[in-house]
């Protein structure tokens, strides 16, 4: 390929010129006198026109043999379309079939007859070929870049904490174990203990974006057995309020950047208006949340205290009354939070903790952590945790540790809410659940 | 804390003013008439001066009780030092002990008497408190940010591939297995198959930075059982040469950015001069590498074909003769490369593959991949791989796949070579090996 390949989205700049384009045959339309190939690359779709009267024999023969999803390299001239003046087409002088697609396809990426989710997940690499699918991951890339930029501007350090742990990171429930040279290792359910290790090490502010694992035996639209967790932790806070203040500035920055760079594409492809949230986000205590929703408290696996119906009701209320898509719920009862959350000074039945809900779904759990060794040990005992199992963690607080807090944030949940999907699997590259280990 | 806390590195700007600083007591020197506390935060160390004649009683009493590694908040006035005019000191009006350190410390972060590596790894969170340790992770953060910036500028998409796999990702050796709802899952040894899935899905250019796992039963200075792998893959290449061309531009960009932002700190703390490498990097074939070094080929676990002594010899030769720290070895024999590496058209005993060595160590393995379904199946058979095990992977190539290639890059190996360390554990946040699962 001596010529420089261009993307289909760049054709407009090359009217009257020879170009090289390449990608998948999105569709082929053989109309006799005039044939069309739609060529798809990661930036869009180009129309390639093969007229019977003016095309060389070898191209006409080839076009008849081309199937949907064959991979092609096409050399040709860019011309204005006679039908729609605004559009451009490519008149090929050479077509090369680089890779043939087997017939029939197990899934049609043109999405003409939408397939069921199971089939789409089984053939995920074909499902991802849909232009709006690739867009999801472009947006995901931009989201993480914006997050990192904001963190780094604010002096944060990136860590990669180990996913193989010597003892469970959280409760011991929903844990994957791994035979490890005659011992047992456990897959990290969160980087919680290691973010706190960084605080004890004097890193002061850290973030991590990485995979975590939960042996969740149920199949909901919101849970995977493996997912990408976005985590941060910061020292020298006065309370969980400082963590919430950081999170709302950070999220506002991220959504501003996404609106600027992808706002119109998101509107066009997913029908969702990106709104840059105003600061401060509304805050309610857990108690107020119960009063507003009339929902009774429930105990759930992720230490939340509203069920998913309650989360939706609260967000609806806040949107109507405060005109805000986000809402912090704070001061969760001690009995539904993990042992390392700090208790409120003036009411030890409650914790310096919070969740953040967006459009009816919890996307964050955060808190100030208990950094005082003796208090932490008491709280662990109170929750019935075997101290031996967490000795390495308790040690972090024995040799001087500043006050600190942070949050965990679900990457796919955020993407799902941003783009209006109903299932995290729609925005996960290769989802994992109880039944699914392939592809 | 009503006053805004500042870092110790900012004191110079506050001479004559009241400030609030906080961190660890790095050292305390009680000299009778005049006492000093060295306060350490993530940006540096400040000298706090407590004179007997001018200090309030409660501060004098407190200073006597302060131990190394206690966590302190200090309010005081910034003054010029009488001894060294260039230096500034803080004269405290208030000292608060936020967190006491147990005595004795298991490890001294002042590094006065260097401890052995085992002790340092056992008490990693204290070892990380050394100012030069935190610097390693600041540099690591900047390296990854520079990498991502270059990728994103070049249209790459970030992916998070699953680490739980239904079948082994590579050879089946050194594999961790995980009981998974009555089945067996395997921990990913690399994102190889999933980067290629992204190519089959039309993403065209992807990168991933994430944890990978190898059940390596040996203890070398270069191998962990879990490490951070930096990976990229790109479509529409003509050969492995295109991948090498991308990698050298990318690395040159990264090292330029690191030299600019951390060059003098790296020189000062680690005694290493950062050199921005000239493009193109030198290239030798595997055959030439053998001729230059006189080393006989060996087969090693990571498909390299020079032993570590040979790698050092070759780099020494290239540095002396080509004045370059980097060297690509290319065209590795087919028998030492994995089944998915493409063979050379004109010599099928060799592959379109490469390694990149830096200062005597392999930091990259890359190749053009075989994207032709039938050829790939034949190559898998030739290597004795059970096709059933990799069916999901082979499917990626059945429905149209463009030519593509990429590389894997060791994050800690790069940091180790950049800073002149001799062991990856020195630059890993919480290393994992056969013996080590804590902290």
Report on the structure:
The structure is a homodimer of 439-residue chains. In chain A, the strands form 4 sheets. In chain A, strands 6-10-11-18-17-16-13-12 form an 8-stranded mixed sheet, with helices on both faces. The first copy, chain A, has a 5-stranded mixed beta barrel with strand order 1-2-3-5-4. A 3-stranded antiparallel sheet of chain A has the order 7-9-8, with no helix packed on it. Chain A is elongated and about 85 Å long. Helix content of chain A is 29%, strand content 27%. The first copy, chain A, has 2 domains: 92 residues, Nucleic acid-binding proteins (OB fold (Dihydrolipoamide Acetyltransferase, E2P), Beta Barrel), CATH 2.40.50; 301 residues, 2-Layer Sandwich (BirA Bifunctional Protein, domain 2). Chain A contains 11 helices and 18 strands. Chain A is an alpha+beta fold and 439 residues long. The longest helix of chain A is centred in the middle third of the chain and has 31 residues.
Describe this structure in a few short sentences.
The structure is a homodimer of 439-residue chains. Chain A has 439 residues and is an alpha+beta fold.
How many DSSP helices of chain A?
11
Estimate the helix proportion of chain A, in percent: 25-40%
Distance between the termini of chain A: 32 Å
The largest inter-chain interface, given as chain pair and residues per side, is: A-B, 98 and 98 residues
Average residue pLDDT of chain A: 94
Which spans of chain A of ≥5 residues are poorly predicted at pLDDT below 50? 299-304
CATH class of the largest domain in chain A: Alpha Beta
Assembly of the depicted chains: homodimer
Q: What is the general shape of chain A?
A: elongated
Which second-level CATH architecture of the largest domain in chain A applies?
Answer: 2-Layer Sandwich
Strand content of chain A: 25-35%
């Amino acid at each position: 390929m001596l010529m420089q390949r261009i993307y289909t989205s760049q054709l407009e700049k090359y009217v009257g010129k020879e170009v090289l384009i390449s990608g998948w045959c999105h569709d082929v339309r053989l109309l006799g006198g005039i044939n069309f190939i739609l060529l798809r690359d990661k930036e869009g779709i180009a129309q390639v026109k093969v007229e019977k009267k003016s095309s060389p024999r070898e191209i006409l023969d080839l076009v008849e043999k081309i199937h949907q999803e064959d991979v092609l390299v096409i050399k040709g001239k860019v011309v204005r379309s006679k039908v729609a003046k605004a559009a451009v087409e490519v008149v090929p002088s050479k077509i090369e079939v680089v890779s043939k697609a087997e017939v029939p396809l197990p899934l049609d990426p043109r999405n003409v007859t939408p397939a069921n989710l199971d089939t789409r997940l089984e053939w995920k690499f074909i499902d991802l070929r849909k232009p709006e699918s690739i867009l999801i991951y472009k947006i995901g890339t931009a989201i993480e870049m914006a997050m990192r930029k904001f963190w780094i501007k604010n002096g944060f350090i990136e860590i990669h904490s180990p996913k193989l742990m010597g003892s469970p990171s959280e409760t011991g429930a929903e844990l994957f174990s791994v035979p490890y040279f005659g011992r047992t290792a456990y897959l990290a359910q969160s980087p919680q203990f290691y973010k706190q290790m960084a605080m004890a090490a004097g890193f002061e502010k850290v973030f991590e974006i990485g995979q975590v694992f939960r042996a969740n035996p149920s199949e909901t639209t919101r849970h995977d057995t493996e997912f990408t967790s976005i985590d941060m932790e910061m020292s020298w806070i006065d309370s969980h309020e400082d963590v919430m203040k950081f999170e709302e500035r950070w999220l506002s920055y991220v959504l501003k950047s996404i609106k600027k760079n992808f706002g119109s594409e998101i509107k066009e492809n997913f029908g969702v208006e990106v709104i840059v949230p105003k600061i401060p986000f509304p805050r309610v205590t857990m108690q107020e949340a119960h009063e507003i929703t009339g929902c009774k408290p429930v105990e759930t696996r992720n230490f939340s205290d509203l069920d998913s119906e309650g989360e939706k009701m609260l967000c609806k209320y806040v949107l109507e009354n405060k005109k805000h898509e986000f809402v912090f719920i704070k001061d969760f009862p001690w009995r539904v939070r993990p042992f390392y959350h700090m208790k409120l000074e003036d009411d030890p039945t409650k914790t310096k903790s919070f969740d953040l809900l967006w459009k009816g779904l919890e996307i964050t759990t955060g808190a100030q952590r208990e950094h005082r060794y003796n208090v932490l040990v008491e709280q662990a005992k109170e929750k019935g945790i075997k101290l031996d199992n967490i000795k390495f963690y308790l040690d972090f607080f024995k040799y001087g540790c500043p006050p600190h807090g942070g949050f965990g944030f679900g990457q796919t949940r955020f993407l799902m809410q941003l783009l209006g999907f109903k299932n995290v699997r729609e925005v996960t590259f290769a989802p994992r659940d109880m039944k699914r280990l392939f592809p």
